[in-house]
Write a structure and sequence with these properties.
about 325 residues, alpha+beta, 6-stranded mixed β-sheet, 7 helices, about 20% strand
Length: about 325
Amino acid sequence: MKLASLKRGGRDGALLVVDRALTRAVAVPEIAPTLQAALDDWEHVCPTLETVSKQLNASDVENAFPFDPGELAAPLPRAFHWVDGSAYLDHMRRLRQARGAPMPPDSDRVPLVYQGGSDRFLGPCDPIPLVDESWGLDFEAEVAVITGDVDQGSPAERVGESIRLVMLVNDVSLRNLIPAELAKGFGFYQSKPASAFSPVAATPDELGDAWDGARVHLGLESRVNDKLLGRPEAGEDMAFGFPDLIAHAARTRVLGAGTIVGSGTVANHDPARGSSCIAEARALETLDGGEPLTPYLRTGDRIRIEMVDRDGRSVFGAIEQEVIRSVTPD
């Protein structure tokens, strides 16, 4: 089952069921007005949503309409909780090696996460506003899951059953603002503006054998101005699976239904597969003995992030965004 949210319908959008081919959709207000409402009552509404999904895939829904990613908000236009991890240690290692910094202690045993802003997310085709190009605008292509309720202290062996949906993320970053923020010892804030998400979120069964309960074993492709930057395999070299990340986040708190947990920037040990963000491409250029040549994003630049299945079909639809100049109010 694939779900999306129309922009119209208020701040939380209007819930849609989308067909597997990403060609047709149907609104289901009589089942749940929003995705958050569906997640809050998942055990009750999920079977009904699945029935609609089967009918839609069989072209047996009269009020279906053409699927248009440009009309969509993020699957969850806002969320109560957004926690992003850094599960790909090769990505972390390259960035730190390039600036001569060691890896964090126990980084191979304890996940690294931060809590980001979640009161407003960008839709899959929304522009990325940029006030100042010197801030070093970057994208980060990731996989994320949306959970149901998770009890505090739940072990990784148990939290897998709480994973409701899977989707893609562009975790927007302002690289040149990060060092000063981290140096103060209080973490990201201004350097992490609104993230964007794929057109649809899919139930894990939609992924077939590409989903092993913890990881998505498909390539994640990133393009900048139509030029391929990377296509690493998301299930490979992911040191911590989603159950590990969820359990880590829930160690000291309850996670409410609708919590989004990101994987961190997807990266493989083999650098030939390319990068899922510009910072890593620049790090590889530095480690290769040269100067970083790949520029950060500028006004007018376009990014595209997409994952296709083994038959070449888009799983979640593409995140397609353009950087636009944003002017701050006087």
